[in-house]
Amino acid sequence: MPDPSTTRLAMYKSKSDGSELASYTQDIGQNLDKIDAAVGFQSCTSSTRPSSPYSGKPIVESDTSYRTYFSNGTAPASASWVEIPNSSATFSQNLKIASGKQININASGSSASFAVVNAAAGTDLISGRVTSDTQDRFLIDTDGTLNWGSGSATPDTNLYRSAANTLKTDDAFITVGNVTVGGDLKLVNGTLLYRPKLFGGAVTLANSTTETVLSSYTIPANDAVVGACYRIEMWGQAGCTGTPSITFRARIGGVAGTSLSPNLLTFASGVTSKRWRCSVLVTCTATGAAGAWASSILTQSSLPTSGSSSSTDCTVIADGTAGAVRDTTVSSDLVITGLWSAASASNTLTMDGYIAERVA
To answer: What's phi and psi for 107, nearest 5 deg?
Structure first.
């Protein structure tokens, strides 16, 4: 009986007590063939990998641009192959880097997890494309410049550091959210296009004694600081019968919210299609759950007041409210409401438009 074969290459071992004559074919020739086949990486295809590899067995696949693997010796053999990255083939597995280790290109002195040294600030660092793209959709330069494009042409939009503590874009910037500026807002060689809250359409108050919201502006939660000032200005036309009064009232918190400033006008009888304008200014004087507000409301109209001639214009400014309380940590609707003293089909007020904004 010969001794057991070697564990890795299964080479033949004649009996160690010398009782077996050595055979060149069996003891030398075949063993040399096994050694020769095992030297370096065994060439195969992805479908002809060795079926009984030893632990550490290396292979290279000729049909996958020479992907390289070694066997970790586990069973089944088909699941034992661990891919080794190389410069010829596309690596087909996840590359796991231990915490605290780097991918370091060109001996960067940075301690970042991904560190690169390039020759120039404008050299491409990271890019992104979809399958059919011929150009980068997203590109980061070594100096941190961010570039965006369509994927079919050179990137056309950027964001970069233009000076110390300064970010700049050479293109347009649009936001659907808020922009908060802690310093000066400067406009250089351009036109400032400012659009307050968009007007949602005319509101008509007629034949009713119900207090009705005519215009509104939502103050976001925690937007108000001491000194913050909000403005609503609205305008329209009105007509009446008899000598009714109309009360314009500013409230914070909607139609059922805290009353800020009422403004009452009593009109002369039987006027139609007269113009009016009403504006309110509201200032925050204290913040928090017990937030305090001061306000002033001004109304101007061409509707004559009771007892005056039809050519007499009317201007009324209310004393306002100096200490109205409304929580600034929740959002609140600043509104101007209208209320007729008497219901009549002839008592008609239409709000034709308004602007609403934070002005300070």
So the answer is: 55, 50
Q: To the nearest 10°, the Cα dihedral for 151, 155, 157, 160?
A: 130
Residue 60 CB: number of other CB atoms within 10 A? 18
8 A C-beta contact, residue 232 and residue 336: yes
Q: Hey, what amino acid is at 260?
A: L
pLDDT at 309: 45
Stated pTM of the model: 0.56
pLDDT score of 160 more than 70: yes
> Rounded to an integer, what distance in angstroms lies between the CA atom of residue 299 and that of residue 267?
13
> Would you report the helix, strand and coil content of the chain in percent, each value rounded to 5?
5, 40, 55
The predicted model gives 201-211 an average pLDDT of: 93
Tell me the one-letter amino acid at 310. Answer: S
CB 122, CB 141: distance < 8 Å: yes
Could you tell me if 136 and 129 are in contact, meaning their C-beta atoms sit under 8 angstroms apart?
Answer: yes
Name the amino acid, one letter, at 68.
T
